[in-house]
Structures are given as structure tokens and as C-alpha cells.
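Q: What would this chain look like folded?
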Amino acid sequence: MKFPRLDVRSACLFMTSDPDWRQKIFTGGLVFLIPLIGWTTLLGYRKAAIDRLWTGKSTVLADWQNNYIYFFVEGFKSCLVIFT
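A: My prediction, written as C-alpha cells:
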């Protein structure tokens, strides 16, 4: 059985393919500073990024605008799965 090879460089730098990656990462860093709520929101953002990567969207990083509640709810669902 042959396993696919992992390109470490592209695995670490995939987010830089988005033209607005600096703004999105900076916003994520600010959200991360809010204990519990920010962490849960970032977990939902991570889920959205994985969904976008899985479906083959051209930009992997989702837009933060007006999606904070959605990311928090998705992150909360993920927390429930993790802690049960």
C-alpha cells in the first residue's frame, strides 16, 4: 500500500494563498485574546476552514465579517463533541 507524500511546505503555508490572509489571521489573533468565547469562536473558524479546504474553495480562510455568531455556534458544537 502506498501512502501519499505530505508536502510540509504547502501544509504550513496554505493560508498564505488567500490575498487577505494577514487581515484574517490578525482578526483571529484578536478574537483569541477573549478567554473561552474567543477560543470557541476560533474552533468554529477552524471547522469552517476545514470545510472550505474539503470542498476545494479557492480561498481556504473564511471571511470574518458578520460570521462571529456562526463561528461561535459551530465551535460550541465542536466543544460539546470534544468534552462528551
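The longest helix spans residues 37-55.
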